[in-house]
C-alpha cells in the first residue's frame, strides 16, 4: 500500500472516528453504544488507528478537524512522538532526529513526494527545515520507522510524510478562518534599539468544497504569520584553544611549566598527562529576530467516475527573517602572565582564567543587520485509477524548488567590528551558569570606540526536484496482494558564497569620526536574568548597541572604502552544484495467513541506481598577508571549475510480519535495509581554502568526495501493541541498526598552492632574536618587522594605530615557511550500530474527559566520542534519550493540554567553530507547553497557548560539562486566538 493510500485511509478514519475501525476490534468495543468523539480524543483515536492498520511500525499525528493541527509548528508536533527529538532555533522547533539519527538521515515527503530544502545556516545539509511550513493546511503527519519497499530512499531514522488536506476526502463545504495575537517575551529582553513589536499577528484560513455529485473538489488555504522575538547568548565564538597535554611545551601557546615565569599563578595545575583547554574569544550578544512566514496551497480534484481520481496541487511558502545583533567580546592571547584555577580531573577546562597585558588590548563592539528569504514552490499532479476490483494504479509527478538568499542590501550575514583599545587585566569566571567577564581597567570614555574589522557575507542556495512515480497494487487470490512501482528523481542543489572582509583589527578609523551618541550603553546583566551570574558585581557592566546602517555609512566615508563595506552580489567566491539522478523500482508481496495466530507477511525489494555529478568553482590562493595581530588573510586570484562524476547501485530488501495475537493485541517484526545519502559538503568536489590563516594554528581547507557511497543500514525491529480501548493503547518497540559506509572525516595537514607565511620567516626570527619579542607577543613582532624592514620585499608600513602599534602588511616570501593547511576530506570508512527501545502509553480515563499520553525513548551506541582523545573522531550525532508527558482534559466546551518534552544531552558536532577536532555537546533540555481551547458554540472557538512556559534556557559545552561553550536565554511566548467555522 503506498504512502498516499495510507494517508487517504487515515484521513477517512479521522472523518469517521466513531465507527469501528477494523475487524480486529474486540466484541465489547463493537457492541458498545455508538459514541461520537471529537476534538483531541478524535485526533488520538485516528492516530491510534493509523498506527494499528499500517504495515510496519508507523506513528503519527492526525488533525482533529480540517485546518486545526494541534501545534503551530510541525516539528513541535513531531517531538510528541516516541523516538522523535527536535533541534530548536530561536526557541522554535526546526529539525528532527529520529531514533538517534540526525536530521540529515531522515527523509521528509510532502504527500509522498521528495521535497527540496535550502538552509543558509547549513548550505551543505539535507535536513528539512520545518519552520518553513505552517500547520493550518496539514491533515496529518506519518512517521514510518521501518523500511518498506515502496518508500523512497534517504530515511534511515524515519521517513516522515506530511499530508495536506484533500477536498474529496472530506465531502461537502468546510471552511474556517482564524487569527492569533502573539506575544513573545524574548522580544522584551532586548535593548530598546533592537526591540520589535510587542504583539504580532497570525491569520489563516482554509476553504474546502465538493460538488453535489462528488465529482469536483477544491481546497484553498493560506496563512500569514509575523513573529518578533530574540535570544541572548554568552559564549566562546571560536571555542576553546587546544587541547594541550600538561607536559606539552610550546612557547606562547601552553601554560608555563613548573618553575617557569607565570607558573606560580596557576592553581591546581593540570598534571603532566592531563588534557586541558583554554578560552580564546568570549563574548555576550543580543539578537533580535523578525520573521514573516506566508504559506498557501491550492488543490483541485476531479473524479469523472468513481474509479478515477485526479489531483492537481500547488504549494507555496515564503519565510523572511531579519536579524539584528550586537555583541561585546574579547580575545585571550594566551600570555605567559595568565592566572588560572583548575578543577581536578584528566580532561579539564579552567574554572577561572585571567590575562594581564603590557599594552592596552581591544574590547570588540560588534553589530550586524541582515535579512534572508526562503521560497518553496511545488506543483504536482496525481491520478489514481481503480482499474478493477483487484487492480489499482497510480501516477504522480511534481516539480518543486526551494531557494534561499539575501533579503537585505547588507547580505545574508555581516558584522561591523569596532573597538575601544582600553582593556587591561581581563578575567573570566566559568563557575557560574553565566560565564562572568570582568575588565576593571576598561575605559571607553577616554578611549572611545572606533572602527576595526568587518565582513559582509552573501550566500545563495537553490534546490530543485523533478520526480515521477508510477505504482500499482494487484490483489491475488483471496488473501494476497502484489505491490509494484518505478520512479525517477532528478535533484539539483546549487549554492554560492561570497565574502568581503576588512582585516583592519587594529583600527580603521578615528573615534572622532563618529558622533558621541552613536554607541549606546545598555546594562549587560539585565539581558541574562534567567542565568545565575547575571548580577555578579564583577561582571562588566555595559553592552553597546548602534544603528548598523548609520555606522556602516560613517565608516565607509571615514575610510574612503565604500565598496569594502557592502557585500558582493555580482560574483561568488564559491560556486558549487551537485546533481543526483536516481532510477528505482520496487516489488513487494503480502499475504494474510489464517493460522492459529493469524498474521500477515510482506516481503519486498527495492533497487535503486544513482548518478552523482559535482561541479565546483576553485579559487587558487596566491599570497598570505599578515595584516592584523593574529590573523593572516589569503589573497585569491583567478578561478576555474572542476567536474567529477560517480554512481552507485543499492538493492534494499525488506520483510515485515504482523501477528494478531488477540483481537486487541499485535506483535510486529521487521527486517530490512535502508540508505541515507551523504551531506552535500561530503560529496562536493573542488578544493576550498579558508580565507584566514591563523597565527597559532595555520590554515584550513576542505574538499569533498563525489564517489562517496550512501550510508547503508541493516535494520531489525520488534514491537508489541495493545489496543485495550477505543482511544487507549500501550506499546513497546525495540530496534537495532547496523550502519556501514559512514563518511569518516579525515584531517590532513599539508601545504597548498605553494603559499608561504611570514610567521617563522627571516623577519620573524629577527624579531624573536634581535628584537627580544616573545612568540605570543604578536604586536611586538609586527612592530619590529614594520619598524625595521619597511620597504624591503613583502613589508609595507602604512602608519600608526590608535593604540600606538604600527599598522601595515607583511607578506609571506618564497624563503618563508610553507603554510600548513588542515584539510578536511571524506571517505567511506566508518561503521556504527544504534539500538534502542520505545515505550508508549496513551490512556483516556473513561468518559471523564481526562487523558494522558506518555512515552520514553532509550537509544545507545558503542560508538562514542572520547573526550580524552585529541585526534579526529567519528561518532553519531544527535543520539539522546527523550521523553514526553502530556496531560489532557476535554469536554463539550473546554480542551486543555499540558505537555512536557525532555531531551537528554547529545553530541551536536565533532568539529568546533574553528574547524578543529573537538566535541560540541548540547545539554539536557526540558520544556513545558500549555494550550487551552474554549468552544463558544459549534462555529466559534477561542484558544490560549503558552510555549516554553517555564522559560527554560539552553547550553552547549565542550570536552567536559564544565567547559561552557555557550548559554542561551530566550523566553516564553503566548498566543491568544479565535477560530470561526463556516
UniProtKB/TrEMBL annotation:
Position of the signal peptide: 1-17
A Pfam entry, by short name: Plug
Domain TonB-dependent receptor-like beta-barrel residue range list: 452-949
Entries under InterPro entries matching the protein: Beta-barrel_TonB, Beta-barrel_TonB_sf, Plug_dom, Plug_dom_sf, TonB_rcpt_bac
Domain TonB-dependent receptor plug, residue spans: 51-152
SUPFAM superfamilies referenced in this protein's UniProt entry, alphabetically: Porins
Subcellular localization, as worded in the UniProt entry: Cell outer membrane
Coiled-coil stretches noted in the UniProt entry, renumbered to this chain: none
Region annotated Disordered, chain positions: 242-272
Alphabetical UniProt keywords: Cell outer membrane, Membrane, Receptor, Signal, TonB box
Protein family per UniProt: Belongs to the TonB-dependent receptor family.
PANTHER family xrefs: PLUG DOMAIN-CONTAINING PROTEIN, TONB-DEPENDENT RECEPTOR-LIKE BETA-BARREL DOMAIN-CONTAINING PROTEIN
UniProt name for this protein: TonB-dependent receptor
Amino acid at each position: 500500500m503506498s504512502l498516499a493510500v495510507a494517508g487517504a485511509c487515515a484521513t477517512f478514519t479521522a472523518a469517521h472516528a466513531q465507527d469501528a475501525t477494523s475487524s480486529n476490534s474486540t466484541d465489547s468495543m463493537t457492541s458498545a453504544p455508538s459514541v461520537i468523539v471529537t476534538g483531541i480524543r478524535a485526533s488520538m483515536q485516528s492516530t491510534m488507528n493509523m498506527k494499528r492498520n499500517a504495515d510496519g511500525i508507523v506513528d503519527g499525528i492526525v488533525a482533529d478537524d480540517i485546518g486545526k493541527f494541534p501545534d503551530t509548528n510541525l516539528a513541535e508536533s513531531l517531538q510528541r512522538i516516541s523516538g522523535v527529538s527536535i533541534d530548536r532555533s530561536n526557541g522554535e522547533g526546526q529539525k528532527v532526529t529520529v531514533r538517534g539519527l540526525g536530521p540529515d538521515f531522515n527523509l521528509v515527503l510532502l504527500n509522498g513526494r521528495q521535497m527540496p530544502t535550502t538552509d543558509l545556516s547549513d548550505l551543505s545539509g539535507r535536513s528539512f527545515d520545518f519552520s518553513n511550513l505552517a500547520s493550518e493546511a496539514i491533515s496529518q503527519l506519518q512517521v514510518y520507522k521501518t523500511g518498506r519497499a515502496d518508500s523512497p530512499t534517504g530515511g534511515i531514522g524515519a521517513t516522515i510524510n506530511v499530508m495536506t488536506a484533500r477536498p474529496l476526502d472530506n465531502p461537502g463545504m468546510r471552511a474556517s478562518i482564524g487569527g492569533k495575537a502573539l506575544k513573545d517575551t524574548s522580544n522584551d529582553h532586548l535593548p530598546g534599539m533592537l526591540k520589535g513589536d510587542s504583539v504580532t499577528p497570525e491569520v489563516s484560513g482554509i476553504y474546502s468544497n465538493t460538488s453535489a455529485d462528488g465529482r469536483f473538489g477544491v481546497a484553498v488555504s493560506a496563512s500569514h504569520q509575523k513573529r518578533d522575538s530574540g535570544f541572548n547568548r554568552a559564549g566562546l565564538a571560536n571555542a576553546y584553544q587546544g587541547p594541550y597535554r600538561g607536559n606539552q611545551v610550546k612557547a606562547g601557546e601552553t601554560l608555563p611549566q613548573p618553575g617557569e615565569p607565570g607558573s606560580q599563578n596557576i592553581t591546581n595545575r593540570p598534571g603532566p598527562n592531563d588534557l586541558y583547554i583554554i578560552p580564546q574569544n568570549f563574548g555576550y550578544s543580543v539578537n533580535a529576530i523578525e520573521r514573516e512566514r506566508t504559506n498557501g496551497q491550492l488543490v483541485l480534484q476531479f473524479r469523472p467516475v468513481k474509479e478515477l481520481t485526479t489531483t492537481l496541487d500547488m504549494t507555496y511558502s515564503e519565510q523572511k527573517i531579519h536579524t539584528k545583533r550586537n555583541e561585546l567580546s574579547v580575545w585571550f592571547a594566551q600570555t605567559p602572565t595568565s592566572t588560572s584555577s583548575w578543577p581536578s580531573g584528566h580532561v579539564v577546562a579552567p574554572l577561572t582564567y585571567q590575562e594581564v597585558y603590557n599594552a592596552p588590548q581591544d574590547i570588540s563592539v560588534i553589530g550586524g543587520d541582515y535579512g534572508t528569504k526562503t521560497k518553496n514552490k511545488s506543483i504536482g499532479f496525481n491520478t489514481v485509477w481503480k482499474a478493477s476490483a483487484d487492480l489499482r494504479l497510480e501516477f504522480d509527478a511534481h516539480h518543486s524548488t526551494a531557494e534561499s538568499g539575501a533579503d537585505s542590501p547588507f547580505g545574508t550575514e555581516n558584522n561591523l567590528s569596532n573597538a575601544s583599545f582600553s582593556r587591561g587585566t581581563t578575567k573570566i569566571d566559568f563557575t557560574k551558569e553565566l560565564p562572568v567577564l570582568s575588565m576593571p581597567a576598561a575605559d571607553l570614555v577616554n578611549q572611545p570606540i572606533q572602527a576595526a574589522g568587518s565582513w559582509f557575507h552573501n550566500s545563495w542556495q537553490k534546490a530543485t526536484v523533478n520526480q515521477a512515480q508510477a505504482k500499482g497494487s494487484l490483489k491475488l487470490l483471496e488473501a494476497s496482494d502484489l505491490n509494484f512501482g518505478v520512479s525517477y528523481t532528478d535533484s539539483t542543489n546549487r549554492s554560492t558564497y561570497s565574502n568581503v572582509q576588512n582585516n583592519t583589527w587594529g583600527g580603521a578609523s578615528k573615534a572622532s569620526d563618529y558622533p558621541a551618541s552613536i554607541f549606546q550603553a545598555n546594562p549587560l546583566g539585565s539581558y541574562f536574568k534567567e542565568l545565575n551570574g547575571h548580577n555578579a558585581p564583577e561582571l562588566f557592566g555595559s553592552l553597546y548597541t548602534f544603528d548598523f546602517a548609520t555606522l556602516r555609512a560613517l565608516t565607509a566615508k571615514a575610510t574612503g572604502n565604500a565598496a569594502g563595506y557592502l557585500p558582493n552580489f555580482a560574483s561568488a567566491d564559491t560556486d558549487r552544484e551537485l546533481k543526483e539522478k536516481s532510477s528505482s523500482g520496487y516489488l513487494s508481496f503480502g499475504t494474510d495467513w489464517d493460522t492459529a495466530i493469524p498474521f500477515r507477511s510482506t516481503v519486498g525489494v527495492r533497487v535503486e541506481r544513482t548518478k552523482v555529478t559535482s561541479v565546483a568553482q576553485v579559487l587558487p590562493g596566491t599570497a598570505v598577508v599578515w595584516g592584523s595581530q593574529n590573523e593572516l588573510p589569503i589573497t585569491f586570484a583567478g578561478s576555474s571549475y572542476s567536474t567529477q562524476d560517480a554512481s552507485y547501485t543499492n538493492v534494499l530488501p525488506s520483510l515485515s510480519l504482523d501477528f494478531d495475537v488477540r483481537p486487541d493485541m499485535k506483535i510486529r517484526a521487521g527486517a530490512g535495509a535502508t540508505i541515507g545519502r551523504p551531506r552535500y559538503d561530503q560529496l562536493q568536489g573542488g578544493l576550498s581554502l579558508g580565507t584566514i590563516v591563523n597565527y597559532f594554528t595555520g590554515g584550513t581547507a576542505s574538499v569533498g568526495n563525489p564517489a562517496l557511497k550512501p550510508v547503508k543500514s541493516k535494520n531489525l525491529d520488534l514491537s508489541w501493541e495493545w489496543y485495550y480501548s477505543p482511544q487507549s493503547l500501550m506499546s513497546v518497540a525495540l530496534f537495532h541498526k547496523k550502519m556501514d559506509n559512514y563518511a569518516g572525516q579525515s584531517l590532513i595537514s599539508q601545504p597548498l598552492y605553494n603559499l608561504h607565511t611570514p610567521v617563522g620567516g627571516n623577519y620573524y626570527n629577527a624579531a624573536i632574536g634581535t628584537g627580544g619579542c616573545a612568540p605570543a607577543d604578536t604586536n611586538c613582532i609586527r612592530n619590529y618587522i614594520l619598524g625595521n624592514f619597511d620597504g624591503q620585499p613583502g613589508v609595507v608600513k602604512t602608519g600608526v594605530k590608535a593604540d600606538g602599534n604600527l599598522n601595515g602588511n607583511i607578506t609571506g616570501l618564497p624563503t618563508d615557511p610553507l603554510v600548513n593547511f588542515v584539510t578536511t576530506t571524506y571517505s567511506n570508512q566508518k561503521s556504527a550500530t544504534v539500538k534502542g527501545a520505545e515505550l508508549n502509553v496513551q490512556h483516556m480515563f473513561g468518559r471523564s474527559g481526562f487523558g494522558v499520553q506518555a512515552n520514553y525513548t532509550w537509544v545507545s551506541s558503542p560508538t562514542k566520542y572520547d573526550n580524552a582523545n585529541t585526534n579526529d573522531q567519528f561518532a553519531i550525532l544527535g543520539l539522546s534519550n527523550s521523553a514526553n508527558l502530556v496531560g489532557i482534559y476535554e469536554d463539550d466546551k473546554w480542551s486543555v493540554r499540558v505537555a512536557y518534552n525532555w531531551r537528554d544531552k547529545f553530541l551536536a558536532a565533532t568539529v568546533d567553530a574553528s574547524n578543529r577536532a573537538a566535541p560540541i555537546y548540547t545539554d539536557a533540555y526540558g520544556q513545558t507547553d500549555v494550550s487551552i481551547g474554549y468552544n463558544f458554540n459549534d462555529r466559534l472557538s477561542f484558544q490560549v497557548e503558552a510555549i516554553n512556559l517555564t522559560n527554560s534556557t539552553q547550553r552547549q559545552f565542550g570536552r567536559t560539562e564544565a567547559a561552557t561553550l555557550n548559554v542561551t536565554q530566550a523566553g516564553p511566548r503566548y498566543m491568544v486566538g479565535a477560530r470561526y467555522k463556516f
